[in-house]
Specification:
- This protein has four helices and six strands.
- By secondary structure, the protein is of the alpha+beta class.
- Strands 3-2-1-6-5-4 form a six-stranded antiparallel sheet, with helices on both faces.
- The longest helix has 20 residues, at 134-153.
- It starts with a helix and ends with a helix.
- Bound molecules: methionine sulfoxide.
- Methionine sulfoxide binds next to strand 1, helix 3 and strand 6.
């Protein structure tokens, strides 16, 4: 990671820690990532409610997928498997649930509590293939960890 990437991660973590409520922290995460991850065309956070991921907030074109069963999509897979999923070409991945015909790549990072529970996930889409490399992944995983730490405090 470059020093600019570190500065970006620090600003995002600070915004998450300083947000007055968890709700504000979730919104600050999406707006911070939308401003910083210049290769993304859509950023959103889903929260897990029972066996359904429910869209909390988003920046980008409105998605038809505001509720995603855990059994479906890349979003469902990341939550079920409790791990980051990076897809360089969504057209080649049968798990992909299309939100926009122009989307080509996607990064989904689960927000995991310290006992392994899934609070939700951060989802980024890009209209460019292979838009999300190791630096983007680390940035979003850092944001997910900062959010999870807030949750664990609630
Ligand atoms: N593509 C996701 C659905 C959510 S949209 O990207 C906003 C998936 O495959 O689960």
């Amino acid at each position: 990671m470059t020093s600019a990437d570190h500065a970006l991660a620090d600003r995002l973590v600070h915004a998450i820690d300083a947000a007055p409520t968890l709700d504000d922290a979730l919104r600050a995460t999406v707006s911070g990532l939308a401003d910083s991850a210049e290769r993304s065309d859509w950023v959103g956070i889903y929260l897990l409610d029972g066996a359904t991921l429910v869209l909390h907030n988003e920046i980008g074109k409105p998605t038809p997928h505001t509720r995603i069963p855990l059994s479906q999509g890349l979003c469902g897979a990341a939550a079920r498997e409790r791990r980051t999923i990076v897809v360089d070409d969504v057209r080649e991945d049968p798990r992909y649930l299309a939100c926009s015909l122009t989307t080509r790549s996607e990064l989904v990072v689960p927000i995991l509590g310290n006992r392994g529970q899934v609070f939700g996930e951060i989802d980024l889409d890009s209209d460019q293939p292979a838009a999300f490399g190791p630096d983007a992944r680390r940035l979003v995983e850092t944001a997910a960890a900062a959010l999870a730490a807030r949750w664990d405090r609630v």
